[in-house]
Amino acid sequence: MADSGPADSEPLSQRLTAAVLDREEGYRTLDTLQDPATQSLFLWLEEVAPGFPDWLITVLFGGTYQRPGLSPRDRQLANLAALTALEGR
Fold first, then answer.
1. In the 8-state DSSP scheme, what is residue 6?
2. Which of 9, 27, 62, 70 sees the fewest Cβ atoms within 10 Å?
């Protein structure tokens, strides 16, 4: 790995952008984007991996989906495109 100068001496936590997570907004966004039938999958996942659905909702819908730069529509299109591209793997 190439030396990038003085920034290498800074701790990693100082060099990365802090994640902003809003659990309540995550659940509100989930309610806006997914119907109750789709959300019921989280109940199944809770049985398999307790706590994991809450983490997913908080990080994805309360974090990633809240970042500026893309409208919810464009963010969903990008998400769909990525999932479609992965289908062929």
1. G
2. 9
